[in-house]
Amino acid sequence: MSGDDAIPEFSKTKAGEGHDVSLTNLSAFASGPGIRSGAEVAAIIAVAVVIIGGIELALRLFNVPHYIMPGPSAIAYALYDEFPLIAPHLGYTLVELVSGFSIGAIIGLVMAAVITQFPFAEKIVAPYILLLVTTPMLALVPLLILRFGFGYTPRIIAVALAAGPMVMINAATGFRRVDSAKIALARSYGASTLQIFWKIRAPMALPMILVGLMIGAIFGLLTAVGAEMVGGGFGLGNRLTTYSSMIQMPQFFAVVLILSTLGILIYVLFFLIGKKWASWEA
To answer: pLDDT tens-digit profile of 182-229?
Structure first.
């Protein structure tokens, strides 16, 4: 039982008052992108057209070769033409991301629950978590490849090691940021520590948990692509290495566009989940 479960002294300050909205709080998402008006959508499209058209025009005016910087039209054509060849590699990357992220997220959530309920465990685990957070996982990929070969295994392990600590840190922060008054009230009704965790701590920590999952998924995607670039003959990272070595820059930027789209989809997914299940935090 952690020390913050003690019955608090109540003050006139309202629960949640004085907390700033930041990138580590999903309430920023819930109050962020919403249903946009027609004028906003038109403005966004107009800005995109101006930027893309301006880049295309500038590259044509200065006769910049495609192998230095391809224009948006060349990238779009390469994406259309090469997508049947890129699609299998996209599938490989998604398998690595989903598998590694699932393992890392589960371990991270379990560890967050343990260290918030047992402070002594946190003192033991904290140095190792700090080591994982500060160590670039790509530095371990060659070692993992030597041990497990060039298949999925080293990449999935690297993704799990990259995503797990991010999930754990944010989830642990959420578990701790529970109003002590609610815990005191639950204890006054005879609730056990496990009941308090599942009925109070976990629901109230959901916004921070979702932020941790989002950050972990993005870190996992970056790690998966980096691991594919280090070794192996498949995956979007491998396509980046192949296209750059062959100076096929339109195809290279087409893969970059796919990766950017994956990152946006990760954000949108967790935004929608947060809007449905954690919008009360806003």
So the answer is: 888 888 888 887 888 888 888 888 999 999 999 999 999 999 999 999
H-type helices in 177-201, by residue range? 180-188, 193-196
Tokens representing residue 264 in the block = 């946006």
C-alpha closest to that of 154 among 108, 107, 99, 105:
99
Q: What pTM value is reported for the model? A: 0.81
**Cα Rg for the chain, rounded, in angstroms?**
23
CA distances from 174 to 113, 121, 187 (A): 10, 17, 20
CA distance 62 to 58: 6
Q: What is the 3-state secondary structure (H, E, C) of 240-279?
A: HHHHHHCCCHHHHHHHHHHHHHHHHHHHHHHHHHHHHHCH
What is the rounded end-to-end Cα distance, in angstroms, of the chain? 29
Query: In Å, what is the CA distance from 10 to each residue of 6, 40, 204?
Result: 12, 45, 19
Q: Judge contact between 113 and 209, C-beta under 8 A.
A: no
Instruction: Give, in degrees to the nearest 5, the angle at Cα 169 between 166 and 171.
Output: 100
d(CA 6, CA 207): 24
Which residues, given as ranges, of the chain have pLDDT below 50? 1-33, 282
Which value, to the nearest 10 degrees, does the dihedral of the CA atoms of residues 29, 31, 35, 38 take?
-110
